[in-house]
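Q: Convert this sequence to structure tokens.
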Amino acid sequence: MESGVLKVFVTGVCGQLGHDVVNELAERGYDAVGSDITDKYIGADDGSAVVSAPYEQLDITNGDDVKAVLTRVQPDAVVHCAAWTAVDAAEDEENKAKVYTINADGTKNIAQVCKELDCKMIYISTDYVFDGEGTQPWQPDCKDYTPLCVYGDSKLKGELAVSDMLEKYFIVRIAWVFGKNGNNFIKTMLKVGKKFDTVRVVNDQIGTPTYTFDLAKLLVDMCESDKYGYYHATNEGGYISWYDFTKEIYKQAGYTTNVVPVTTEEYGLSKAKRPHNSRLDKSKLAENGFALLPTWQDALSRYLKEIEY
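A:
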């Protein structure tokens, strides 16, 4: 930044991604401010906290509060990680209104203030905005949206709020997220793999995992950039199924648990309909000078060294 140290406001810092984004900003010597809905920061499972960053309690669904806090902070960029991410719970009738209030209206509140402040906004979206049909990787600028579930539809409405209102924005779609600060598929499979001799895992949903530690570096690079637009960002290493992912998790963790492949229909435990094709094309990152994320196999190896299991 020509004007000096970059100042970035990060929502959802009590989650997997927000936690890592604030840490990456602090690592680079930037002025980071973290926020979430809790009255104080809730650290990672091991008790570690956000590195040397002030914390602001913020309910993104309250437009007045969003305006007051962001106007006071005066950020150069906002990285919007806060979201309702409980995909199956989003299908429950009593939760639907809340999901849209957080993911759509909350995002619109932030975009509105970013417009007033003329600051950049980075919105974290998802592969769930697509219908997941076919086998071709989804292109970041594809507008063929047909979300299959409430979560996907609410995140799409957040995307549209950002793109309709702003010019200085990044919309970054990710998939199969794992990080240190929170629960995720890897932690779940390690627990069940320790408890049971055999586990059943879906083999007809195809995509690529995303390590929040790696993604955070890219998002901070975007804060430094003006190459605005839609992007896809997952780790490299090829497209796999959840079954393939589980096999590699157990291999690297030294587990002997038997993994049985099943179809989504055979598995049958999910309320929300999930995309079968979550292949995301990431070539636009390289085309615009951004570094691609390391392979998911390498990310998994580093992650397993970070957590206790």
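The mean pLDDT is 93.
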